[in-house]
Amino acid sequence: MRTAAVGLGIGLALADSSVVTLALPDILRQFDVEIPEVAWVLTSYNLWLALAAVPAAYVARRRPVPAFVAGTLVFALASLACAVAPSFGVLVAARCVQALGGALLVCAALDLLTAVRGSEHGAVRIWALAGIVGAALGPAIGGILTETLGWESIFFAQAPLALLTLAGVVGLRVRPTVRPAGRPNVPANLALLLLSGALTAALFLLVLLLVDGWHMDPAVAGVVVTVMPVAAIVTASFAARLGTTATRAATGVVLVTGGLAALGVLPGSAWWWTVPPQALVGAGLGLALSALTERALHGRSPQAVHGGWTIAARHAGVVVGLLLLTPVFTTALDRNEERALRAGAAAVLDSGIPPLEKLAVAQDVLAIVRASDREVPDVREAFADRPATPEYRSLEDVLVSQLDRAVTAAFSRPFLLAALLAAAALVPIVVSRRAVSV
Amino acid sequence: MRVLPVVMAAVLACALVGAYVALGGTSYQPSPVADPCVARAVRPAADTAERLEHVLLAAADGTACELGVSREELVLALRSVDDLDALAAKTGKSQDELEAALRAGLVRAVDEGQREGLIGGTTAGSLHFAADHLPLGLLLSLLRGASSLFG
Fold first, then answer.
1. Domain span at residue B68?
2. Do A267 and B24 make contact, defined as CB atoms within 8 angstroms?
3. Is B86 found in the same domain as B14?
4. Is residue B36 part of a domain?
5. Alpha-carbon distance A94 to A111, whole Å?
6. Does the pLDDT value for residue A374 go beyond 70?
7. pTM for the full model?
8. Disruptive mutation site among A227, A247, A254, A405 for chain B (greatest number of B CBs within 10 Å)
9. ipTM greater than 0.85
10. Residues B21 and B54 occupy one common structural domain
């Protein structure tokens, strides 16, 4: 009961790094901001979580229960502030405060779990798993809530759930840790940073591709991206049998790299193409994140401080991923929009529709492209009031196909860049493989 | 560190990426547009509007070839004088050079269309006059609405 409640708190706080991913298009529209700006709803939370994690851990190790309660209350109140934010600036500010509460909650939770479970090793496993499940399930839950009740409902739902976790600490006594903290495990934390940066692509870009690029219903997209957490949970259940943390981490990183590279060379624009790569990324996530977290904490005490370092590394990685991949993505989108426009113009000029109509169709399509502003246009609108002859249907299909190709191609480079980022995580793992063999 | 799980993961990852590449993953992009300097296969024209369309598309091809851009880029630039100015800047030509290329391309295509019997003498004469004498803005409006004038 206590384990479940504390685990829920960890899951909530770490899900917040990705929970609003599917809500970003709605937030973008509501506050009239650009893609690079709206990414700050994610970036601000991850940045402040990264910055606050280690200081929060030093506070949490001295008074774990009060720190958990205070962190939970701040997180819950900031969630409500996000839900009722009257402007984009207030929303981002509330996300920063939410991250401060989240950092305190997550770091204190590690010492609480150690006290509840009676074993540091068992506590670390649950702590890492709760974080992985939270981060991986975040986009799916956020997408379903956004579609059914609006993006604000994500934050409204979080507040009572966060308060529920307080049930886990009622009557719990945890002795403060006063011994000095040793140095963090730099290779393991560096690998966590690189891998988390790469995973940003899987969570952030994939959702954008499904919802904004391929016009998929956010709730359906939420279901599609559950492949990743399901694969992560399944893999995590038998991960220990694969061997040492170095083996599990390296295997996981290779799977994540392969999955991201496959997302970079999608041969079509249907959701099922994303399933095998997602399964690979999810399986890699289940193996690598828990193994690297265990590796970072192994033999290091106090746990809260070193747990704080892993949280800082992971969320700094997410920030690096967002800052690195967002401009690459927006540049690629602009370049491919031009290519799609030229391919579309060629399709109209070479089509079999009457010459008089070519100019009208071209003008209607261009008007839709111009009006779509920051979104991927739906060119089918140009054919709504036109004859359903084979020539028109054929042209419509060609234009939609060209647009799908352009959008999918725009995501290719960021996914491949993310795959490189994931592959780079192998370096610190391999270099330090002899340093720790657990 | 055990190597077998890592190798198996690498094989799985390579198999998936290889399969996606084999299925066309690296070429799933917007179709490239045709080279305007290479002659295109033309459908037989059924009526005056289609014949006039052939002439205008041939004019676009000729001009685009001369400017070193695609026909589609040129056609999209014909939306307005501003778009045409942007194309001039992109191709490194002056506005006067671009205008001259546009007028010359139209004249060439009209002459060719007349020789091939696609358009009659009256239509060819009108287009010649437009290409030689109309201000650029009016000429663009004419090209955009040419089908409705002569169709």
1. 48-150
2. yes
3. no
4. no
5. 27
6. no
7. 0.81
8. A254
9. no
10. no
